Amino acid sequence: MVLAITLTLVVLALALFVVYPLAMAIVTPRGEDWLRAVTTARWRVTMGNTLTMAALSTVSSVLVGFIYAYAITRARVPWARFFTLVPLLPLITPPFVSGLSFILLFGRRGIVTYELLGLNTNIYGWHGLWLAQTVSFFPIAFLAIAGVLRSINPNLERASESMGASAWTTFRRVLLPLASPGIGAAALLVAIAVLGDFGNPMLIAGRFRVLATEAYLQISGWADMRMGAALGLALLVPAIVFFFLQRHLQGASVGRFVTVGGRGSRLEAAPLSPWVRWSLFAFCLAITLFMGAKYAVIVLGAFTPVWGIDYSFTLDNVTHVLVRTGELWNSIRFAGSAALVCAILATVSAFLVYRVKVPFGRALDLVSLLPAAIPGTLLGIAYVLAFNTPPLQLTGTGTIIVISMVFSYLPVGYRIAAATLQQLAPSIEESAADMGASSMRTFVDVVLPLIGTSFSAALVYCFVKAIGTLSAVVFLISHGNVVASASILNLAEQGYWGWAAALATMLITAALLALALAKLVLGRRFAFFDV
Amino acid sequence: MIDRVVSAAPSGAPRTAPSPRMRRRAPLALLLAVVLGLGATTLAQGPLLVYSIIQEQDAAAITTAFTAATGIEVQTIRASGGEIVARVIAEGNAPRADVVLGGASNLHIAMTNAGVLDPYFSDAAPFLEGNQRDPDGYWTGFYLTALGIGINEERYRQAYGDKPLPVTWEDLLDPDFAGEIVMTDPIASSTAYLFLQTQLQRLGWDDGWEYLEALAPRVGQFPTSGSAPPRMVGTGEYILGVAFVHSLSSTIVQGFPVTLVVPPGTGGEAGAVSIVAGGPNPDLARQFVDFVMGVDAQQAFTDIALTTPLNPDVALPEAAIARASIDMIDFDADLAGSQREETLRRWESTLD
Complex ipTM, two decimals? Predict the structure, then answer.
């Protein structure tokens, strides 16, 4: 009974806030809009740009992510533990922080290009966007690929080398083929993230137009919801393809690893030649310094009166943004509420699929993961279309912002919960059931304590992502519900870099505090990025 | 400068019955108010919901003065002109704002034509001339704007040596300037739309388009906010920028090395305030419009924004440029308002 109600609620929530808005977005553009979308030269160029950019940024992100992951998991470079933490920073800060910091670092008056090197470079354009997206999204590739490399038993490489293969041959003929499905899956995750990225193109792309910003312009400039939806949907098509490919590859790579070796006999990876190892160390160090510069410049910018002209110390920016604590507080409470709801929904939904094994479990599984393929821009548009009129009028409220955050990050929460549930032996629950516990009782008394860790991971992950999210939220803000990320973009775009940097610093601090708090409360059980 | 964007509790809007969610959040909102140090302010009514096209801190100068004078809280959302117009039109069936503050009159004309404004003929503005307010009272002007060119002279000298500074609109077509000009996107920004209309009205429709099509490839970037080009020229991101004269003046006052040129035959029009039809607080909206016409509001606004005030009793700050020293074309705002869609569609297809 309880189960039936829970299932109904979950299905209803998913139907209402994922399927229904998406359906609304799909039926909104008419034939003539589609015709205009494909015949207008401007948008053909935009579509080409979007795909080119997705390809470029994905390749570079995966390359950087792979080398970085290889250095840490295989080459055992010095400071490996420290290097593991570095890519986590971009994951917990809003992606558009890259765009902002690169203007400060490499712009016309950038501290590196102008002050140090005396160059006169133009960061605005596809190359600036490429750099910003690579730095923003390589951590996604790193995490996925590091997981893949760790799960490949080094015994195989040892075996290859003991049979006389060189280190290079082993790398090429053993490790790469084993890792390739996982790398492919990682690439597709990155590609989906790049497609939906809104803040970086807005800040740093110059005249290079991509679909996410173009859809926004259609709605913000023209109030043309039909064309906005059409361009948003054009973004969905490749994203959905990538999404299913990724699911396929993920499955393939999981199957491959299980067949490979047990846990018992695991040797350390063979040592690499010092030359390779130190080159990899230098690579990691360079990335780390780059990341350090990226955040240092934001903090520095927060205390600089006029970047590029007056580098004296000031607290003016900070005092200015102190009056925006309301926006910061909005970000925190919206993200907090969303994280809680998201973690609960993700856990319950994963439980229904993997444990209760409800009918249509595969459909539930798919719909829970589907938002991962929906670019934020399209989600925002779809929500405006679906919830702008009664009976379910939610636009203009903070609630709709919270809901958009919940469903944006549901897939991640769901993946975390599903992974944990698959690891738990069903026998524990079976014993509880044998002793007469109802399925709800089993869930609360047996499963909940066990999945506490994954629940908290989902909670924290959703919080740190939601607090900086922009692409969907930008369509949904209203009086009294302005969030800090939208203001940062607004200020940065108006050229108020000091204020933008100060507010960004505060937002990042809030996210870091949340992480520290979780670590403090949960202690060793807190395993944030083990997914 | 207190920024009212953040200040009011979310439970304030009186037009809807409080939802359970809102009621649950009321203590939270109260706490928020106390935390922000606003607990001492009694909320008279409202809050008044403002969509602002002028910059945040400039709008705050007016709204803070309004709150100080009346005790009425104000909540502001700022966005560029096109975005606000699109928002107000899109929200036509369920308006979420009371007032649109600032922005060229052609934007207000576009909203008037879309039927989303309420007329109000303020008695507080007897000084307004013919084209400074709508004859039916749909919008009321309170400042004047004009377009100019901002130049980062240091970078200009580095790049072009002794080449004379551009002084006319035609000078911008110099091929050397390719990629070094910044102006806003006319689809989103009223500043840039005024620029398009200035050229179309100055040169005539066909020659005007010829000019615009020649200029478009010279532009390095089209940001959406009218305040971006002055800053970007000031910091040297671009050498040349097209922007409002007052906006460039403020950038100079803030210490940026910008040289201001006002080309002959520039365009400009009244910036206006208007009332959204069916907004939640119509009485407060009218009170606000009256207040904006007064000396207090216009002095506070002029002092920070350096615009030319329409109220003759306001003293012009030293850094502002007097209307008399600008050579302006006889700008037809009605024409600009009615041609908006046609012009912008053509512009959209002009760019690759």
Answer: 0.73
